Backbone:
């Protein structure tokens, strides 16, 4: 497993202004998703960067793949704030007519919704004004 120093470097690279640097960081992180033992290496800061980058061309499929791979593991947990953000971004992407990674996005939502809290966020059951709006659209 990579070190704490590697983690800090990858967090910095994900926030870098150069798209090639971000892409290299994403490639490294993608390689780490093949083993459940590496789930704990990922930090909230990495997840925040990846969620922010989801809408950027060139990064979307890699980031969705990372989240799909991680979300298949029982040890993968996102805090409620990150869950809300990723679900909101993915639902926005799915509304775009030109969005081509529909299968990856649906796989991610399916994996996330195995957790009751994530399913409630997706269905928006805790907000009576928005209840089910994601699904209705």
Residues:
């Amino acid at each position: 497993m990579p070190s704490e120093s590697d983690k800090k470097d990858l967090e910095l690279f994900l926030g870098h202004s150069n798209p090639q640097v971000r892409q290299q960081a994403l490639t490294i992180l993608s390689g780490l998703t093949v083993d459940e033992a590496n789930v704990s290496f990922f930090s909230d800061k990495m997840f925040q960067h990846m969620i922010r980058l989801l809408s950027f061309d060139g990064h979307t499929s890699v980031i969705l793949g990372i989240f799909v791979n991680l979300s298949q593991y029982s040890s993968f947990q996102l805090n409620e704030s990150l869950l809300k953000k990723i679900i909101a971004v993915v639902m926005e992407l799915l509304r775009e007519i030109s969005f081509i990674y529909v299968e990856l996005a649906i796989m991610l939502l399916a994996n996330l919704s195995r957790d009751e809290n994530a399913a409630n966020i997706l269905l928006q059951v805790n907000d009576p004004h928005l209840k089910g709006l994601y699904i209705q659209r």
